[in-house]
Specification:
Elements (H helix, E strand, L loop, with lengths): L6 E4 L6 E4 L8 H14 L1 E4 L6 H9 L4 E9 L14 H8 L16 E8 L7 E5 H6 L3 H7 L3 E4 L1 H8 L22 E4 L1 E3 L6 E3 L5 E2 L6 H15 L5 E4 L6 E5 L3 E5 L9 E7 L3 H4 L10
Parallel strand pairs: 2-3
Antiparallel strand pairs: 1-2, 3-13, 4-15, 5-13, 5-15, 6-12, 6-14, 7-8, 7-11, 9-10
Bound molecules: fe (ii) ion.
The site of fe (ii) ion has 4 residues, from loops.
Amino acid sequence: MAATTISIEPLDATFGAVVRDVQLRNIDDETFAAVHEAWLEYGLLVFPDQFLTRDEQNEFALRFGDMEFAATAISNIGRDGTVHSDPDDDVVKSLRGNEGWHFDSTYMPVQAKGAVFTAEIVPSQGGATGWADMRAAYDALDEATRSRIQDMSAYHSLYYSQGRAGYLPKQKPDGSYGMYGYHDEEVSLRPLVKVHPETGRANLLIGRHAHNIVGMDPDESERFLDKLAEDACQPPRVYHHQWQPGDAVIWDNRCLMHRGTPFDMTEPRRMWHTRIAGERSSEAASNHPPAAS
Ligand SMILES: [Fe+2]
């Protein structure tokens, strides 16, 4: 299919677009170039009716960069097919934690570049995914705030975010949590203002994993970061997508935050998430420099 036939309909927000007339499986180079250009401009692209297999989803993700991890179920359906809805269940706690606005993998040494996310089984209502445009949020700041945060840095940790929300998983006998992201490396330190490596646009780098701004009282830091996020995640900078089976999206995790929203967890829901690795040269935490192994 020629790139010129791609239909791009911008969302009613500062970012995002619905893209039709394109098949993501076996996408040709010319069409991919148009999709990539639109991705950098809009941050979030929604592709209805794709019904990708996991391999096809991973192949599409690999067009954007290496994978941090291949297609993984984000689901309340257990390996044995049962639906998890108990609030004390670790899977449920992980899903509930994701209802806070965040960037993916800022708690890792290298922040994710983006993700391909697809819907296989969706609940009868609820369970939308929201995104928020941190480029527009930065642009909307007043001059005083912009200059105040220019040189600030905060730590990012899943221990902090899940602990604060009351959703830490059960500890193993050795005291570890044994789930992705609960690492024992140095806690990642990141600037509050990040420049996008491909577009050059500044954006806020905040969200639920961020805490303890360097040089600020911890309680004041928490209030300050909460207020920044609350002000940032307001219309027209947010969009919530109500999923249909077969939908595929790709978002740029270097400039958009996202969150899950509640649904009746006695209903099954299965999404697939392929995480695209950030570049060490631009997405490494400042205390995990690119030269580090
Ligand atoms: Fe996430």
